[in-house]
Specification:
- With 150 residues, this protein is mainly α.
- The chain has one domain.
- It is 70% helix and 5% strand.
- Strands 2-1-3 form a 3-stranded antiparallel sheet.
- β1 and β2 form a beta hairpin.
- The longest helix has 34 residues.
- It is elongated, with a radius of gyration of 18 Å.
- It starts with 6 loop residues before the first helix and ends with a helix.
Length: 150
């Protein structure tokens, strides 16, 4: 793998690690208690506030999101470019969407939103950039193959 070919795996790895770290940082605070994303979604589910439909599924499946980050990075390093780009994009939109959505909640009140959702959303942007760079490499190598065949 050439140095230029390390950009996508690097972005997917660094971004994925940052996303995973972000999910464990405090997302909300109530009084003196701070809660990570996993604790927040667990409480919402236990209290019966988890909605049905896509949002409910997104909350219930949140614990597999780190697995998406790891799979995307591993696929990139083993040069499964399309798989890495697809999993990376899905994971980036998932983590980024949830992070940015939670970050939009009111900052004052009984429950305060902290900085981790924004951090997670920005880190997901790195993962998405890695997925885009990975797909650009696929398109570029396909174009080279077509040029060699003609």
């Amino acid at each position: 793998m050439r140095l230029s070919g390390m950009a996508a795996p690097g972005l997917l790895t660094v971004g994925g690690v940052a996303v995973i770290v972000g999910t464990f940082l405090p997302w909300v605070a109530s009084g003196t208690a701070e809660r990570s994303s996993y604790q927040v979604f667990e409480v919402i589910g236990r209290l019966g506030f988890a909605p049905d439909g896509p949002l409910g599924w997104a909350m219930r499946l949140w614990p597999i999101m780190p697995l998406l980050m790891v799979l995307a990075a591993a696929a990139a390093w083993f040069e499964y470019r399309v798989l890495a780009a697809a999993i990376g994009a899905v994971g980036a939109f998932y983590a980024g969407g949830v992070g940015f959505a939670v970050n939009q909640a009111p900052k004052e009140g009984l429950v305060r939103v902290l900085g981790a959702p924004l951090f997670t959303g920005v880190a997901a942007g790195l993962v998405l950039a890695g997925a885009v760079v990975e797909m650009a490499g696929v398109v570029r190598s396909d174009a080279r193959s077509d040029a060699l065949r003609s």
